[in-house]
Specification:
By secondary structure, the chain is α/β, with parallel strands linked by helices. It contains 15 helices and 17 strands. The structure holds pyridoxal-5'-phosphate.
Length: 410
């Protein structure tokens, strides 16, 4: 019997939309399993970017002329699409250069409302970009950074988290999905526990928005960060969602054009949201491209994508578990389509190099989550991460490749 996902999903048509997928590039037909690092782009996104340059390239917001008006409209249309995608209000969607930049914005701006001795809580399974900005803020403002402990499975110790909450905690910042382990955190619970003590919560959704429907109003998170390039959109563009009340209270992050209402040498007044946080000429084609990426995801349906990717995860986990000497790193009950593993005592890098010779692209190393690797006392992992265009046949190729690696190196 066919499952709902396979009937709703025309995988052949989907793959045709992505020029790199299934094509021989430089004589190599690449099996691309590095989607947590970045996804490939559908033609609609690529065309939207070239159309901007070919047909209506102009600076936005400050021109009375036709081209500027068309470009501004396209950019603001994209903002609306993204707002609808996460169920936010349009003025709560701020364009940044990516999830990293979004987190740095909050770490630089919101923390100015804190006082020395205040505490920020992150978790032990964060990407470096949800660790280092807070460390910098802590050094600058004499704040304290505290870390939710994890279990071997890659799940967080929520009971320990609850005990960490006190009146000095001014922010909790956690990922929705771990990029190196695939763990999906119990965000609703984390947010409820923090909110019960009036503590705002920032969500790093860089590995979530392309896999799981995210509704900021239902989640009730205070901030949410993500990157365009991990959700089939362009590089160099990302989003910070923030609740209006917070964004209005926070001081601007960067100064410059666009973010002001009036400027004199004595005093500057700031623009309304979201422009108050968008100094300088924005990444117009990136924003437009991201709007098309959202259209693309919507055209397939995130619920269908989620179900299809879950099938890939289950299939992959089953097939890889049959390989002698494989050890999964990250065995949370609730997981996204990421499989991290070690094969016998083979170094992840060596495994990745051999797989590359077989035209299989995986990521190896610490995946910008060194504290996880330290906790687990491993040098890194091999990570296969799936997107909507991957197939079970590609997973079979990965399995064959790993058997070869094992024969050569073990
Ligand atoms: C969970 C998580 N957060 C943040 C980032 C940073 O994203 P970017 O480099 O696009 O800013 C990544 C990138 O891998 C990630 O996986």
């Amino acid at each position: 019997m066919e499952t709902m996902a396979t009937t709703a999903f025309d995988i052949t048509a989907i793959r045709k939309q992505f020029p790199i997928i299934g094509e021989a590039i430089g004589g190599k037909k690449i099996i691309y399993l590095d989607n947590a690092a970045t996804t490939q782009k559908p033609l609609t996104v690529i065309d939207a970017i070239t159309d901007y340059y070919k047909l209506y390239n102009a600076n936005v917001h400050r021109g009375v002329h036709y081209l500027s008006q068309v470009a501004t409209e396209a950019m603001e249309d994209a903002r609306q699409k993204i707002a609808t995608y996460i169920n936010a209000n349009k003025e709560e969607v701020i364009f940044t250069s990516g999830a990293t930049d979004s987190i740095n914005l909050v770490a630089s701006s919101l923390t100015q409302l804190f006082k020395a001795g205040d505490e920020i809580i992150i978790s032990s399974i964060e990407h470096h970009s949800n660790i280092v900005p807070w460390q910098l803020a802590c050094e600058r403002l004499n704040l304290k950074l505290r870390v939710i402990p994890m279990f071997e499975s890659g799940e967080l110790d929520i009971a320990a988290f609850e005990k960490m909450l006190n009146e000095r905690v001014k922010l909790v910042s956690v990922c929705y999905v771990s990029n190196s382990l695939g763990t999906i955190n119990p965000l609703e619970e984390i947010i409820q526990l923090a909110h019960a003590r009036n503590i705002p919560v920032m969500v790093d959704a860089a590995q979530a928005v392309q896999h799981i429907p995210v509704n900021v109003k239902e989640l009730d998170c205070d901030f949410l960060a993500f990157s365009g390039h991990k959700m089939y959109g362009p590089t160099g563009i990302g989003v910070l969602y923030g609740k209006k009340e917070w964004l209005q209270t926070m001081p601007p992050y960067r100064g410059g054009g666009e973010m002001i209402k009036t400027v004199t040498f004595e005093k500057t007044t700031y623009n309304d949201l979201p422009f108050k946080f968008e100094a300088g000429t924005p990444h117009v084609e990136g924003i437009i491209g991201l709007g098309f990426a959202v259209d693309y995801i919507n055209s397939i349906g995130l619920a269908n994508i989620m179900q299809y990717e879950h099938e890939l995860l289950e299939y992959g986990t089953q097939k890889l578990s049959e390989i002698d000497g494989i050890k999964f790193i990250g065995t949370a009950k609730n997981k996204s389509s990421v499989i991290s593993f070690l094969l016998k005592d083979i170094h992840p890098y060596d495994c990745g190099v051999i797989l590359d010779k077989l035209n299989i692209a995986v990521r190896t190393g610490h995946h910008c989550t060194q504290p996880i690797m330290d906790f687990l006392k491993i040098p890194g992992t091999v990570r296969a991460s799936f997107a909507l265009y991957n197939t079970k046949e590609e997973i079979d190729e990965l399995v064959k490749g790993l058997h070869k690696v094992s024969k050569m190196l073990a």
